[in-house]
Amino acid sequence: MLRTQSGLRVLGAQDLPEVLDLLAADPVRNVFVDYRARLTRLEPRWLGGEIWGWFRDGRLASVCHAAANLVPAMADEEALDAFAGRARKRGRTCSTIVGPRDQVEVLWDRLSSHWGPARELRWQQPHLEISGSSDVEADPLVRRSEASDIETLYPACVAMYTEEVGVSPEWDGGRDLYRARVAQLVSRGWSFARYEEGRVVFKAEIACSTPHACQVQGVYVAPDRRGEGLATRGMAAVVELARREIAPVVSLYVNGHNTAARTAYDRAGFRQTETFATVMF
């Protein structure tokens, strides 16, 4: 097969081994793109978009996930220029640009005059990892959610999303789609929560996973139970369960201004390895 010597092209199933080899150079920070590549096998109908590859001297050097989220991986400025150029021509189809801050900054610099204004810019999002046991005792009441928990779990998921994103996931007819996403995470065994008296007081989900790592999302403590250490001990439980049954390294990224969450993650044993950024539309 004729291979691109240098430049950008849309990747397909035949490129999957090369994509996975590239992402394996930094498998924790690249976990989202790695997960999506494995899940969809780079088939556009499953991606709901495309994955672009930047080639240099006939070898894949960078990739960019371009679907509901625009996510660069292993991209230098030359690759980011090419990705931004294709994104401008294609038009905005994503709800966020997210990834390592240095890469997101370049993309947004190239795209802001075409895709702006953004609804929100989050430039300080520490990326955290833990690859060993937590520093605190795990909460024994945190468990995997089950199908029978969804009626109780769903309101907490809506509350977390609305508080974090600033818009309800049910806005503009999104309820069925978001509820299906919650049910999907439960069915995969990726939802963890502490249930008390018919409600959720702590929860977290695994957003994506590969053989190398998984990424946590949706961490939430009921407002009237904050300050009790539920997040610290709850995250210790999530780390214990995830590392034993899902992936050896647990990661997440958090808003820099969220000092309560950052304190909880630090106490649970997470350590910063990168700074991420998110552009939200």
Automatic annotation (TrEMBL):
| Keyword annotations from UniProtKB, A to Z | Acyltransferase, Transferase
Q: Which GO terms describe its molecular function?
A: acyltransferase activity, transferring groups other than amino-acyl groups
Record-linked Pfam families = Acetyltransf_1, DUF4081
**Where in the numbering of this chain does the N-acetyltransferase domain appear?**
140-281
- What InterPro entries has UniProt attached to this entry? Acyl_CoA_acyltransferase, Bact_Acetyltransf, DUF4081, GNAT_dom, UCP21603_acetyltransf
**Cross-referenced CDD domains:** NAT_SF (cd04301)
Q: What is this protein called?
A: GNAT family N-acetyltransferase
Organism in which the protein naturally occurs = Nocardioides mangrovicus
